[in-house]
Amino acid sequence: MVKKLTNASLEDIMEALQGDNKTQELIANETLRIGSLLVNKNKAYGNSALEPVRIFSRANSMEQLAVRIDDKLSRLSRGHEYVGDDTLDDLVGYLVLLLVARKRQKQDE
Fold first, then answer.
1. How many domains would you assign to the chain?
2. Which of 37, 59, 62, 71 has its CA 20 to 30 A from that of 92?
3. Whether the Cβ atoms of residue 32 and residue 13 lie closer than 8 Å to each other
4. CA 17, CA 33: separation in Å to the nearest integer?
5. 48: which DSSP letter?
6. Domain housing 11
C-alpha cells in the first residue's frame, strides 16, 4: 500500500507499463525492479545503509554511501567485477539510497 509519493507519480509509471512506448515501459520496469531490490535488502539487512552500526567507521551515512559509490565506480572503470555481483544494480541502488539520505537530512534540519 502506497502511503505517500513525493516528486513522483504512480500514474506515470502505470501509464508507461500499459502504453505502447517500449522505452518508457523498460524505464518503468527497471525503476520498479531496483526499488523492489532496495526494499527487500532493507527488510533483510535492516536500515544499515542509512543507520550504520559504526563499529569501525564513524563517518556519517552519506559519506559511507559515497565511499560505496566510489568503490562501484572504480570496479566499473577497471572492469573488475566480483562473480555474482551486479555492479550497475548496486551503483544505482547506492545512488537512490544517497537521494533518500539527503532527503532525510533535509527533513531533520
1. 2
2. 59
3. yes
4. 13
5. T
6. 7-46
Residue 46 grid cell: 535492516
Whether residue 1 lies inside any domain: the answer is no
Q: Residue 30's closest CA among 86, 69, 75, 79?
A: 86
C-alpha grid cell, residue 39: 526494499
Do you know the residue count of the chain?
109
Q: Do 69 and 101 belong together in one domain?
A: yes
Split at pLDDT 50, 70, 90, the class of 1 is very low
Cβ neighbors of 72 (< 8 A, separation 6 or more) are: 87, 90, 91, 94
pLDDT in tens, 2-27: 566 655 577 778 777 887 888 988 98
At 83-106, the pLDDT tens digits run: 778 999 999 999 999 999 999 988
> What's this model's pTM, rounded to 2 decimal places?
0.83
Task: Give the contacts of 98 (CB within 8 A, at least 6 positions apart).
Answer: 62, 65, 66, 69
pLDDT higher than 80, residue 74: yes
